[in-house]
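As a warm-up, study this chain.
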Amino acid sequence: MEKEFLKLFEIFIASALINNFVFTRFLGLCIFFGVTKRVETSVGMSITFTSVMMVSAALSWLVFNYIMVPLDLTFLKIVIFIGIIASFVQASDTIMRKVSPGLYYKLGVYLALISTNCIILAVPLINAGDKYSFIESITLGLGSGLGFALALIIMASIREKLELADVPKPFQGLPIAFVTTGLIALAFLGFSGIITQ
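Now compare it with the structure written out below.
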């Protein structure tokens, strides 16, 4: 029992910090730069992103292990996983439009882009490739989602402060965002080596 809990903890820490999708794998950068202008928008996107990651990881695991593996359809995993994710994102889109229309319009086109986002697709592909159990798959989805949320909120906080700073004209806007992202990625290198197995 203790060994299983330790493995779940390792998966969670590794996906959130050590192998953070934004700062170590450089995935999901379009949404990362698109929604990090305001902290409020970043928090909304973080909640949506983490929810979609966890639910799509669970649904994809069930479909992969109970339908695709017995029927020998594993070669279709990318197409089927995209279909599962797109269906869930469409449902989230409809719910958010009804529950929080303000946040829905702030997220704009980025909400639709979640369905084709490489991070969302990467989680079920890693689960299938590493043969994770159901609980391990959800843990990977939660850790990856919270790691992405951490990246969004850190970057949004810095970009809001940068609006008040005296940034040289050639570095204003996206160039200073790229420089800041590189510095944060260097800081995240400090987490490597936490888990040595």
